Amino acid sequence: MTAQPVVVTPPRDSLSRRVGRRALEWLPAGLVLVLVLVIWQESIAVFHIKRFLAPKPTAIAGNFWTNRGELLHGGWYTFQEAFGGWVIGCGLGILVALVLARWRRLGRALQPYAIAASAIPIIAFAPITNAWFGPFGKTSKMAIAAVLCFFPVFVNTVRGLTSVRPSSIELMRSYAAGEIDIFRRVRFPTALPFVFTALKIATVLAMIGAIVGEYFGGSPEALGVLINSRNATFDFEEAWAGIGVACAFGIGFYLAVAALERVVLRRASSTED
Amino acid sequence: MSNVVKVEKLTKRFERGDVVALQDIDLAIEPGEFISLIGPSGCGKSTLLRVIGDLIPPTTGTVTVNGKPAPRARADHDYGIVFQDSVLFDWRTVAKNVALPLELLGWDRARRKARVDELLALVELQGFGDHHPWQLSGGMQMRVAIARALSFEPALLLMDEPFGALDEMTRERLNMELLDIWEASKSTVVFVTHSIAEAVFLSTRVVVMSPRPGRISDVVQIDLPYPRDARTREEPRYFELVTRVREALHLGSDAGRAVTP
What we know:
The complex is a heterodimer of chains A (273) and B (261). With 273 residues, chain A is mostly helical.
């Protein structure tokens, strides 16, 4: 056989070079952030914007530093609720999707309700879960977060499990492979990237769900309750700082799941058995 | 000699649309033969291949592979299959794709590795074991699929337009490689194609099929001697046989058209 096309995988760069390149990629986004903060800060002085509409970024930052203990504690408390709801919602989403993909008839009976779950107006639902599980515990907020997480995870998992090419199934059947082997070696690896996309979306939804729940009553420790009460007492700087902390926990949660995704997908396609 | 494949009075009717995909098919394939199924789209050649491989059941008639009913033969891993789309799994390396059937057969790791190395050498892909399928060209991917189909030394190799998506140059090269592999492995091949040149170059016999309803309209014996190489394609006898198959194809489809206006 004559010359064949040779594919060379580029060698991995050293760590310092990779970090350098990453930093360069993030530079434009960083500049935008700085620019927005500067414009925000200056326009408040220039246009005499009232404090309750938007406090100065420096005032928010200062307030955060003063109340960091209280804010981070609240953030952690709310994150626990969000995480619990995320685990429950994602777990149920994956489970129902598996049932639906495996037992089509049962799936057809469940599917309308799974879709209906996404139509629940979450704000209206929050007082109800407070009534069911008690307003001051974490359970009621987990329930809301779980409802929010369920749908994207369910839909994506179903899509992942059913997006297997028919020829892949024919190939496996030609080896006389059973359903379990087909699931383990074809359906599951095909679905994995879809599932992770949904798990990442769900992290942010879970954080939102927990905070929305807290607006209708919750433990005084919780971040949503704190933001709500500071707004009521005209302490807008701390309310804004609280929103910032909520965002930070949400982003951290997202990045943690994204990191998990990289590890799992790399292991799934590693050269070892 | 006993037949590797024996198809008797086979009819396949698809419920949806009430289509008769195959009607009254009789075909016997001897060990070591290279059979091409050729015909226009809709003649049921891929359907026939899938019925032989027990991937879809026949409506009436019987299919015997190695003296056993087709479902039994499938359970016994009597055949390897290659599709037009190479059907490699992106999350597996080339070596692990080739080893897939061996994993299902329960071979241990050392034995799998030894066999995969042999196969990659056979399809001239040494050194590509740790690559991923998307890093390879289309022709190389197809060679991986062929190595995978041969991994457990099936008596029968079923190929459904394996080179249909490749460029002419790659296709001719892989045709020659496939003949080398076929002669080395002594397996029986059933090969679906819509290329007359490919069918004549590769086969011991070309089965010409015609559509609506799908049936065998002619069988052309290809008496070109093996081993065949690039010069075979320039021999007068080769051109005669190409013409012969082309005429059979046209006759078959004209007859089909006369029956169903």
